[in-house]
Fold Cell division protein FtsA.
Amino acid sequence: VGVPANLLEVEDCQGMIAVSGESKEISNEDVRNVASAALVRSVPPERQIISIQPQEFTVDGFEGIKDPRGMIGVRLEMFGHVFTGPKTILHNIRKCVEKAGLVVAEMVIAPLALTETILSDGEKDFGTIVIDVGGGQTTTAVMHDKQLKFTHVNQEGGEFVTKDISTVLNTSFNNAEALKINYGDAYPARTSASEEFPVDVIGKSEPVKIDERYLSEIIEARMEQIFNKSKEVLEEIDALELPGGVVLTGGAASIPGIVDLAQEIFGVTVKLYVPNHMGLRNPVFTNVISIVDYSANLNEVYQLAKGAVTGEVMPTEQSVVYQQETNYETTYDGPQESPLAQDEETSDEGFVNKVKGFFSNIFE
């Protein structure tokens, strides 16, 4: 289950332990223990720890280690981020899923899963902005140095565009959604005022003709407002200076002309991310795919740290027991003649005797 950015609070965390065991070799248990030490903090009673994300480990002062297991050391430190969410909402989400007959296997940080899945290694490293224009909200996330640095949620999305069309054209919400999908364009310069289509208007007995450009201007007004709000918060943290530019995704990002409009507003390179999965090649599926893909590819270090939150123990590899084959001792009595060879020899002797007998009868 994905937890949206507007429910999240992120805090830095740090833990330190003495490495256990006589050999001083860092084990899975040590990683779990240092994660538990990092979670020793005062959490408000109305909030709950969702996840801990290890960023790096330090072994006896040596920094920048991603996986310390197998190393020899005395002191192990971990630096990372702790994500918390409102306890009541998280509980209700879990109960809702359980009532549907399912089980929540993982609470996933949605913006983290999104950025980890759709960005390349270079984009994560050098810095990129991801804007997910969903139906009910728009989430802006910044990934830099392969870490989620910033998130912002604007409670406006594609449904607001549909409501605007419905209000301005005085048509039903369903008709407005169909108009947005079939005729909509977010960049009026790409449209034509001569292209018209019928619209069922409430209170009119006959459909009213609306031109393509007028519809596009309605869409542009709302999308421009959404992007400008994202631009304001991004300018405050100088995120628009990052070389990766902006990556758009989400259901409303599939409106034609959205990339041109975004590029004009943000003034940086903008591209649209479309999932490359058969039958799911539409930005509306990006969030779902990213949550599934992210959960399926979590590394072992994260799983160990997660155990400090949930109490789960990462399953160890099953040892394979090989059954030793029984050796049977045999005695060697020299080469043995096979029954087939004996039969062939008997057959040959009988044939020779018959030939001898035949010629003997002739010369008698």
Observations:
- Residues 212-236 form the longest helix (25 residues).
